[in-house]
Amino acid sequence: MNLCQWTGVTCGQRHQRVTRLDLGNQSIRGTLSPYVGNLSFLRYINIASNGFNGEIPHQIGRLISLERLILSNNSFSGAIPANLSSCSNLIELSADSNNLVGEIPADIGSLFKLERLSIFQNHITGQLPASIGNLSSLRVIDVRENRLWGRIDSLGQLKSLTLLSVAFNQFSGMIPPSIFNISSLEVISLSENRFTGSLPVDTGVNLPSLRELRTNANNFTGFIPVSLSNASSLEMIEFSKNQFSGGVSVDFSRLKNLYWLNLGINNLGTGAANELDFINLLTNCSKLERLYFNRNRFEGELPHSVANLSSTIKQIAMGRNRISGTIPPEIRNLASLNWLTIDTNQLTGTIPPEIGELTNLQQLDLDRNFLQGSIPSSLGNLTLLTYLKLGLNNLEGNIPSSLGNCTNLLGLNISHNKLIGTLPRQILRITTLSLYLELGNNLLNGSLPPEVGNLKNLMRLDLSGNKFSGEIPATLSACANLEYLNISGNAFSGSIPLLLDSLQSIKELDFSSNNLNGQIPEYLENLSFLEFLNLSYNHFEGEVPMKGVFNNKTRFSIAGNGKLCGGLDELRLPSCQSKGSLTILKVVIPVIVSCLILSVGFTLIYVWRRRSARKASNMLPIEQQFLVDSYAELSKATDNFSSANKIGEGGSGIVYKGFLGENGTEVAVKVINLKQKGASKSFVAECKALRNIRHRNLIKIITVCSGRDFKGADFKAIVYEFMQNGSLEEWLHHSNDQLEVCSLSVIQRLNIAIDVASAIEYLHHYCEPSIVHGDLKPSNVLLDQDLVSHVSDFGLAKFLSNHNPDTIVETRSISIGIKGTVGYVAPEYGMGREASMKGDVYSFGILLLELFTRKRPTDAMFNEGLTLHDFSREFFTRKSDTDC
After folding, report:
1. 553 marked as part of a ligand binding site
2. 775 an active-site residue?
3. What are the Protein kinase domain coordinates in residue numbering (predicted)?
4. Least buried of 55, 452, 648, 846, by fewest C-beta within 10 Å?
5. Whole domain around residue 768: which residue ranges?
6. How far apart are the C-alpha atoms of 408 and 125, rounded to whole Å?
């Protein structure tokens, strides 16, 4: 076939020479051949959105007829070739979204025909060459998201510009006033730099076509120019995160196309009574969707005209000002509103029940005002709410049980009010609550309902300063993600439940000022993340532990407990040594009884072992760390290891679903394939790895079996807690027909990644000795009914020396050679390197890429130099949303 007939190749009719290469988005890989420089008739090159890498060949500088060079969205590296200035006919240079470094060529100003310069999202450094000011034909200059610095004075000479974007760099100095005289400008983006000074008074006078003006996150000062009223084409004004001051006098009623106005995080406000009147003018902006003027110094009453804003408005943020007045009931008119924040102001009156008609609302923040009355039950209609913040007001009455209908809540704060009554159980059935539940400093009473155990993902629970009574419910132990728990200042009684040892993520515990009694549980000293513990002003007695959090006096408080003893010397508590004859009897009698019981016990054990010598299996010491079930029990639990109960199979064995014991506990039984080389050692390694560790994101062993089956053959099995949602492998690649395609959202995938990272961090840094997993991959990440991740399969686990965290401890139970899984195992393992934490981190990185791209590292598409890393780089560049 003639090359002129190739896809994307165009030739001239006269000489049949290649004039055009249009190969965008063709999944082409590799480097761009330097021989492209031999196509002397070439006028157009478009290879955007492919997988090209390497440097841009300098031979392109020979193409003197070249008019458009489009290299966007690839992985080109190196610098922009300096000899591109020889392409004197160049109209467009687009090399954005690559990995380019170095500086912009100094001679770029010789490209007098250049109309578009787009090199955003690279790693280009240095200053803008002064010669850029010579590009009189330039219409678009987009250099955002690089590492450029210095001033931009030369850009003021470009009188044909329609788009100027220098955002997300390190430019500084004042903006040349001449820029605001370029009447053709449609977009000015100066965001996220270090610019100073003020905007010219006549900013809007000479910009009739200006649609977007972005100056956010700089150091601009002075007033907002009134002349912006003349820029009638404005659609977006983004002035946040500066130091603008004074009032807002722009006549917004003339900006009919305005959809975005952000004045937040400045020093705006004069104290004048009518300084919020600009809201009245905004009611004429029928396309307005975003209005932010939070974190300023605005005062005066909130105009009720806020309820007359555009019916399309979606977000209003006016928190952290000094706004007074009331919330108008007519707020119900803003039917599209999904975000309303008026926190930290001086609002009075009540929360209008009409807010409950804003059914699209996802965030409502009325914190820190002077609101009174009750919480409207109509808020229960806001079923899309993710955040509800009503704290630090003067609200009274009961907590409406209708809030239990807000089943998408991530955070609820109604603390520091005057709320009374009991805590509705419906609130504790909102299983999505994961960030915070703040109920502190109210007048709530009654017991804490056991439904609190439903909040398995909750990180922060504050019930302090109320009148709660009764015992602490043991179901609180199910809240395995809790990091902060404060129940101080109540009337809780009884002892601290022993089951709370499951709160392995807890960082701060405050049980102070209650009526708790009994001994301080020893497990508190084993909570490895615990940073502060307050047990003061209760009725605890007995010995104070000395390990963990109790090893540092500044990290715990036990004041006001008169019957404690022992502990650190600095506490100056009495010794726990017993005195008197009564004490001697209390010690001697139990010892004698214990000795008799032990003697009888040893005799019975001796007789039993003599009788069962033929049946007994050679149990390894490590297996004795777990309860041991018989083959018969496991056979019964799995219906004789029925194939109908098989839920997984791998090189190490087969996994069956079963129901164990009288209670029918749902379990997963992994039967070890003893024909596999090293299987017994793998069994021991897994038992050893899991015997002393507990973490919410690690699989839990319930029991083990090491004996013989009905035919007399060796049999080994491990029984785990059952994970209802299978493995991450099944969710990503749909090997389980019951899983719906694309059922994992971006947030769920992110939570899974965080869970796995937490587990690996625990193994590496909070276990003694540290543990290397050795085989981290999606099939070894199991998901429970709430999609919480649990890392499993420790058959290749390795223990690391405490002296050198990268040195493997040589023990019999972990003498297996490094295996792992191809594609996930670190490359250095293939060269005979020992297992290390870095190897797990590498495997975790591969898992992350697979989690978000749904591509295995061993997929057939990865050949001829293309890897999962390369694919991911392109994938995340090209996609703004994660889909299937």
Report:
1. no
2. yes
3. 641-884
4. 55
5. 728-878
6. 45
